[in-house]
Amino acid sequence: MFEVQVVNRKYAHHILTLLRNKDSSQIEFRKGLVKLGRILGMEIAEDMETEEAVVETPLGVKVKGIRIKDMDNTIIVTVLRAAWPLTEGLIKVFYNARQGVIAAKRVEEKGMQNYEFEIEVSYVKMPSVTPNDVVIISDVMVATGSTLSRILDEVVKKGRAKKYYIASILSTPVAVAKLRDKADELGVDLKMYAIWIDPEVNQKGYIVPGLGDAGDRAFGS
Ligand SMILES: O=P(O)(O)OC[C@H]1O[C@H](OP(=O)(O)OP(=O)(O)O)[C@H](O)[C@@H]1O
Ligand SMILES: O=c1cc[nH]c(=O)[nH]1
User: Fold this and answer.
1) Are 40 and 86 in contact, with CB atoms under 8 Å apart?
2) How many domains does the chain have?
3) Which of 180, 207, 204 is nearest to 196 (CA)?
4) CATH at 94
5) Which of 48, 56, 78, 193 is a Cys-bridge partner for 87, taking CB atoms 3.0 to 4.6 Å apart?
6) What residues does ligand 1 touch, defined as CB less than 6 Å away?
7) What is the 107 CA–ligand 2 centroid distance (Å)?
């Protein structure tokens, strides 16, 4: 099962516009990713089930509240390197999350064939995943979807979660179609949150209008 949801919040689109601006500085860009990571985390939390929780306040009064059931069994997987600040925002929401890191890169020298890049995975460090867990994959730019398809292969090797989320800033129709097929192939329940879906991927594999090379803009080229 695959679903995609864009974030319908003025503040998120205000920050996205700052990120798109070629004149935004490295610090502004990185801080923008942290802000959007927190918003994506809030959106994902909104999708989760809650249960009743009773606590006693310092005034000795018992009061009914709620807790998000999966708050303590969430795993965040960061796709290096641009997603690092995005994860910093996500972790503000999922404060008890276990974390994994995957380094993957497109083999750009071989070019893009039919909106597909060969992906080189050089490092995978993941906690084990149980059927009680929810996995959130943090990746800023989901252009052709080649990287994320490969990341999903790696993530499911560590055990099956009950639900998978993707937290991203921009994606494209090409990537959405690819991820839908990948979710079917793997038999996983996958929901992608993006701040926006841009219309195109150019011949070099960049999202258009996009925001350029997110890794370089966040950390320097
Ligand atoms: O959907 P795809 O076409 O596979 O492209 C998406 C990938 O490209 C970007 O990483 P990038 O190669 O720019 O690496 P970096 O973050 O390390 O700079 C992005 O963060 C994704 O991981
Ligand atoms: O537009 C794009 C596509 C992939 N990676 C980026 O950083 N930007």
Assistant:
1) yes
2) 1
3) 207
4) 3.40.50.2020
5) 78
6) 79-82, 105-106, 117, 139-147, 175, 205, 213-215
7) 13
In contact, 217 and 189? CB cutoff 8 Å: no
Report the nearest-CA residue for atom 7 of ligand 2.
213
pLDDT in tens, the chain (221 residues): 999 999 999 999 999 999 999 999 999 999 999 999 999 999 999 999 999 999 999 999 999 999 999 999 999 999 998 999 999 999 999 999 999 999 999 999 999 999 999 999 999 999 999 999 999 999 999 999 999 999 999 999 999 999 999 999 999 999 999 999 999 999 999 999 999 999 999 999 999 999 999 999 999 98
- DSSP-based three-state secondary structure for 81: coil
- Which ipTM score applies to this complex? 0.95
Quote the ligand 2 centre to 5 CA distance (angstroms): 20
Q: Are 161 and 135 in contact (CB under 8 A)?
A: yes
**Spatial separation of the C-alpha atoms in residues 8 and 11, rounded to whole Å:** 9
Nearest CA to ligand 2 atom 2: 206
Single pTM value for the model:
0.97
Domain that holds residue 66: 2-219
Spacing, Cα 108 to ligand 2 middle (Å): 12
